[in-house]
Specification:
By secondary structure, the protein is mainly β. 11% of the residues lie in helices and 47% in strands. The protein has a single domain, classed as outer membrane lipoprotein receptor (LolB), chain A. The chain contains two helices and twelve strands.
Length: 213
């Protein structure tokens, strides 16, 4: 399950064939999307996660809240908290929290506060198609990185043509496993205190704290 939680954060660690290029239409869409998210002081996104692996399907609902360098992620019985300095991962099933130092510069691919700019660092991409979803016009971009050790084969990102927000993305691993994320609710500039991004053990009765620092 820990892998599933980090798959959201790893959603843009991708790989494109050697022949792919950074086409101008795709770059324009990605730049506009990135500009929108970087202009926000904070945001909250509710989403659905679905994974198809060897014929077995798993599905979960999740929530992600981001404020500057801070984030809090809830998915599949786990919560990840970081204030930009310390990361705490709470596992509901075992009532345990793992605490460790958080270094954003060393974990760019694991950092949802930078998820909308990762495509700028060593990735190729191209415009794939336009499609309709729920009355919205979406522009679909395909990304694959030139990192040979990446486990991911392709990622398709669907960007709302009007407001430049991400509506869904589909990840296909080299082993054929598929995972998808669909945004069900997006709220920009939410008012959340800094304390929201800190794990408060007083709210988790009997929790075991494992300090890995």
């Amino acid at each position: 399950m820990k892998k599933i939680v980090w798959m959201l954060i790893l959603a843009f660690a991708m790989t494109l064939p050697a022949f792919a290029q950074k086409d101008k239409r795709a770059q324009g869409i990605l730049d506009a999307m990135s500009k929108r998210y970087k202009s926000l002081k904070s945001y909250q996104a509710s989403f659905t996660f679905a994974s198809l692996d060897a014929g077995a399907k798993e599905s979960y609902k999740g929530d992600l809240t981001v404020k500057n360098e801070k984030f809090r992620l809830l998915l599949g019985g786990q919560e990840v908290f970081t204030d930009g300095k310390t990361m705490s991962t709470y596992i509901k099933e075992s009532n345990e929290v793992n605490v460790q130092d958080y270094d954003a510069s060393a974990n760019n691919e694991l950092n949802p506060t930078q998820i909308y700019t990762i495509y700028k660092r060593g990735f190729d991409y191209h415009f794939l198609k336009e499609q309709k979803q729920g009355g919205r016009a979406l522009e679909v971009i395909e990304l694959i990185s030139n990192r040979p050790k990446s486990a991911i084969k392709t990622v398709q990102i669907s960007v709302d043509k009007t407001d430049k927000s991400i509506r869904n993305w589909l990840i296909v691993n080299k082993d054929g496993k598929q995972t998808s994320y669909t945004i069900t609710k997006f709220t920009p500039n939410v008012n959340v205190p800094d304390s929201f991004f800190l794990f408060d053990k007083s709210k988790y009765s009997g929790v075991e704290v494992v300090d890995l620092r």
